[in-house]
Write a structure and sequence with these properties.
Strand order of the largest sheet: 5-2-1-6-7-8
Number of strands: 12
Number of domains: 2
Radius of gyration: 21 Å
Structural class: alpha/beta
CATH architecture of the largest domain: 3-Layer(aba) Sandwich
Number of helices: 18
Largest sheet: 6 strands, parallel
Oligomer: single chain
C-alpha cells in the first residue's frame, strides 16, 4: 500500500477519472497514496474499501474502450469518519489536499467542504505538521482565491493567522467528461477484464489539468500544465464546454433527449450551441484559430457514442452553475450594446426547466433569476420570449 501523502475530499467518478488517475500515472506514484473521503454517502467508500481501494478506469476512445486498474487510493473513508479526517490532516507526511465537491459544496454549512477543511487545518496546526497546499478542482472562477476567502472567514483569528503562514491555495482548471457509472459499465468491465468491480469509472480519452500555485511541502510529479495564470484556460472551458453543456441539458431535456450525445446531434440544438459559442468567444483570450479548433474538438467529444452523459446529471445545481458559465457573457453583450441572444437562450432554457410545467411568465422569471442575478431585470422579456418559443 502506498504511503498516504495526499488527501482528497469528494470521492466521486470525476476525481477517480482525473486527480487519482493523474496521481496513478505519475513517475513517483509509489510515493503518493491518497486518502479519499466521500462528500456525503458512505456507500461508495464501502464498495471501494471492499476492493482494497482499487477500481477499473474505462477510457472510451476512438478505437474503443481500454481498461486500467487504478491503485492510487490507499485509504477510503466515509464523510462521517471525522476522526480519520483530522488524523490525516494532522499528519506531516500529508502535503496536498485536493477537492471535488461540485460548485454547490463550498457553502457555510457544518458538513460542507470549507468547515471540514477548517477543522482539519486546526488539527494540523495543533500537531505542528507544517505547510500544506489546498487544491480545489471544481468549476468555479478563481477557485483558489475563492476557497481561501471562505476558509479564512470560517477560521478563528489565531487559526486564520496560521493559515496565512502555512497554507497555499492553488487555482485550477480541470477537464474530463465523466458520466455516472451504470450497471452496464460494471457488466462491461466484468466481461472484458474478468474483474467484478463494484465501482468502475467510465471516461473519455481527453483530459486536462491546469494549476497555478505553490506546493511548499511537495506534490506528485503530475503530467499537468503549471502556469502563472489559470484564467484564460478557465474561461475557455467554463464558457465553451460547461456553458454548452448547460444549454444542451436544459434545452435537450425539453426536446425529449436523454444524453449529451443525443442532444448535440439535434440540428436545432447544435445551432443554438454555435450561437452561444459565437457570443462567448468574443471575450476569450485565445486566438480565433485556437478557439475554432477547440470548438471542433468539443463537438467530437460531445458526440462520443461511448460516453453516455445524462442530461439530467448535467442539469443539477443550475443556480450554482449559470452565474459562472453564462452571466458574464450576457452582461458583457449588454454593456457592448448588443442583444445577448445566445446567452439569454441558455438562461431561458434553465428558467423553463426550473418552472416546468408551469407558465414562463414575469413572476416565474423573477422567481428564478432574482436570487442569482437581480441586475438582469431588463432582460426578463427576452428570457421569457425565448423560453416560450416552440421547440424549446
Amino acid at each position: 500500500m502506498r504511503p498516504v501523502r495526499l488527501v482528497h475530499l469528494g470521492l466521486g467518478s470525476f476525481f477517480r477519472a482525473h486527480q487519482a488517475w493523474y496521481t496513478d500515472l505519475a513517475p513517483d506514484a509509489e510515493d503518493w497514496g491518497i486518502a479519499a473521503f466521500t462528500g456525503r454517502s458512505p456507500a461508495l467508500a464501502e464498495a471501494l474499501r471492499a476492493q482494497g481501494g482499487r477500481y477499473t478506469l474505462v477510457t472510451q476512445g476512438p478505437a474503443g474502450p481500454t481498461f486500467r486498474r487504478i491503485a492510487a487510493l490507499s485509504d477510503v473513508r466515509a464523510a462521517s469518519e471525522h476522526e480519520a479526517w483530522l488524523a490525516h490532516l494532522a499528519d506531516p507526511a500529508v502535503c496536498v489536499v485536493t477537492i471535488t465537491v461540485t460548485e454547490a459544496g463550498y457553502g457555510p454549512g457544518p458538513g460542507a467542504a470549507p468547515a471540514r477543511l477548517v477543522a482539519g487545518l486546526a488539527a494540523r496546526r495543533a500537531a505542528g505538521a507544517g505547510a500544506i497546499s489546498l487544491v480545489p478542482c471544481d468549476n468555479l472562477p478563481a477557485n483558489g482565491p475563492m476557497l481561501r476567502s471562505v476558509v479564512r472567514e470560517l477560521a478563528e483569528p489565531g487559526l486564520r493567522a496560521w493559515i496565512d503562514d502555512h497554507v497555499d491555495f492553488v487555482t485550477t482548471m480541470v477537464d474530463r467528461i465523466t458520466p455516472a457509472t451504470t450497471d452496464a459499465d460494471r457488466a462491461l468491465v466484468l466481461a472484458e477484464t474478468g474483474v467484478e468491480d463494484r465501482a468502475p469509472v467510465v471516461t473519455e480519452a481527453y483530459s486536462e489539468w491546469v494549476l497555478s500555485g505553490a506546493f511548499p511541502a511537495g506534490r506528485p510529479d503530475w503530467d499537468a500544465t503549471f502556469v502563472d495564470d489559470v484564467a484564460p484556460y478557465e474561461r475557455r472551458k467554463l464558457w465553451l464546454l460547461n456553458g454548452a453543456h448547460s444549454l444542451l441539458a436544459y434545452a435537450g431535456l425539453a426536446r425529449g433527449h436523454e444524453t449529451v450525445q443525443q442532444a448535440v446531434t439535434d440540428p436545432t440544438l447544435r445551432g443554438w450551441v454555435e450561437e452561444w459559442w459565437d457570443e462567448a468567444a468574443r471575450r476569450l483570450p485565445q486566438s480565433p484559430a485556437e478557439t475554432a479548433a477547440y470548438r471542433v474538438a468539443l463537438l467530437a467529444r460531445f458526440a462520443n457514442p461511448g460516453i453516455r452523459h445524462l442530461l439530467a446529471q448535467v442539469a443539477l445545481d443550475g443556480d450554482q452553475k449559470i452565474p459562472a458559465r453564462i452571466l458574464p457573457s450576457l452582461r458583457a453583450e449588454r454593456a457592448a450594446g448588443r442583444l445577448p441572444t445566445g446567452s439569454a437562450r441558455v438562461v431561458a432554457a434553465w428558467v423553463r426547466w426550473v418552472v416546468a410545467p408551469g407558465p414562463v411568465d414575469e413572476a416565474a422569471v423573477e422567481r428564478v433569476l432574482g436570487p442569482v442575478a437581480p441586475d438582469l431585470a431588463a432582460d426578463h422579456e427576452l428570457v421569457r420570449a425565448l423560453a416560450s418559443m416552440p421547440g424549446m
